[in-house]
Amino acid sequence: MQPDSPVPSAELVKLVNQLIASRQITLAQYQQISATVLADGTVDEQERRQINRLFDAIQAGTVKFMG
User: Fold this and answer.
1) Residue 51 burial (C-beta neighbours within 10 Å; 0-12, 13-18, 19+)
2) pLDDT band per the 50, 70, 90 thresholds, residue 5
3) Model-level pTM?
4) What are 5-10's contacts with CB under 8 Å, separation 24+?
5) Which of 15, 7, 21 is nearest to 63 (CA)?
6) What are the extents of the domains in the chain?
7) Confidence (pLDDT) at 4
8) 33/47 Cα distance (integer angstroms)
9) DSSP string, the chain
Protein backbone atom coordinates (compact mmCIF):
# COMPACT_ATOMS: atom_id res chain seq x y z
CA MET A 1 0.00 0.00 0.00
CA GLN A 2 1.35 3.44 -0.87
CA PRO A 3 1.78 5.84 2.05
CA ASP A 4 -0.97 8.17 0.80
CA SER A 5 -3.46 5.44 -0.15
CA PRO A 6 -6.73 5.71 1.77
CA VAL A 7 -7.27 3.20 4.54
CA PRO A 8 -10.75 1.62 4.67
CA SER A 9 -12.73 3.02 7.61
CA ALA A 10 -12.61 -0.31 9.46
CA GLU A 11 -8.82 -0.29 9.13
CA LEU A 12 -8.67 3.21 10.60
CA VAL A 13 -9.46 1.82 14.06
CA LYS A 14 -6.65 -0.71 13.74
CA LEU A 15 -4.19 1.93 12.50
CA VAL A 16 -5.03 4.37 15.30
CA ASN A 17 -4.67 1.59 17.88
CA GLN A 18 -1.25 0.69 16.44
CA LEU A 19 -0.13 4.33 16.48
CA ILE A 20 -1.20 4.83 20.08
CA ALA A 21 0.47 1.57 21.11
CA SER A 22 3.72 2.47 19.32
CA ARG A 23 3.53 6.04 20.67
CA GLN A 24 4.65 7.51 17.35
CA ILE A 25 3.29 8.57 13.97
CA THR A 26 5.20 9.15 10.75
CA LEU A 27 4.38 11.63 8.03
CA ALA A 28 3.35 8.74 5.76
CA GLN A 29 0.90 7.44 8.39
CA TYR A 30 -0.50 10.93 8.88
CA GLN A 31 -1.01 11.24 5.12
CA GLN A 32 -2.71 7.84 5.06
CA ILE A 33 -5.17 8.93 7.73
CA SER A 34 -5.78 12.26 5.99
CA ALA A 35 -6.45 10.52 2.67
CA THR A 36 -8.96 8.22 4.37
CA VAL A 37 -10.86 11.05 5.99
CA LEU A 38 -10.89 13.20 2.86
CA ALA A 39 -11.61 10.35 0.40
CA ASP A 40 -15.39 10.74 0.40
CA GLY A 41 -15.64 14.34 1.59
CA THR A 42 -17.40 13.42 4.82
CA VAL A 43 -16.33 12.22 8.23
CA ASP A 44 -18.52 9.55 9.79
CA GLU A 45 -18.90 9.06 13.53
CA GLN A 46 -16.37 6.21 13.71
CA GLU A 47 -13.75 8.20 11.80
CA ARG A 48 -14.32 11.23 14.00
CA ARG A 49 -13.90 9.19 17.19
CA GLN A 50 -10.65 7.69 15.95
CA ILE A 51 -9.25 11.04 14.84
CA ASN A 52 -10.15 12.54 18.22
CA ARG A 53 -8.43 9.65 20.03
CA LEU A 54 -5.28 10.17 18.01
CA PHE A 55 -5.29 13.97 18.40
CA ASP A 56 -5.88 13.62 22.14
CA ALA A 57 -2.87 11.29 22.38
CA ILE A 58 -0.72 13.73 20.37
CA GLN A 59 -1.82 16.67 22.55
CA ALA A 60 -1.10 14.67 25.71
CA GLY A 61 2.37 13.86 24.39
CA THR A 62 1.84 10.12 24.36
CA VAL A 63 2.15 9.99 20.55
CA LYS A 64 5.02 11.85 18.89
CA PHE A 65 5.61 12.77 15.25
CA MET A 66 8.66 10.99 13.83
CA GLY A 67 10.64 12.08 10.80
Assistant:
1) middle
2) low
3) 0.76
4) 5/32, 5/35, 6/32, 6/35, 6/36, 6/39, 7/32, 7/33, 7/35, 7/36, 8/36, 9/36, 9/44, 9/46, 9/47
5) 21
6) 9-66
7) 54
8) 10
9) --TTSPPPHHHHHHHHHHHHHHTEEEHHHHHHHHHHHHSSS---HHHHHHHHHHHHHHHHTSSEEE-
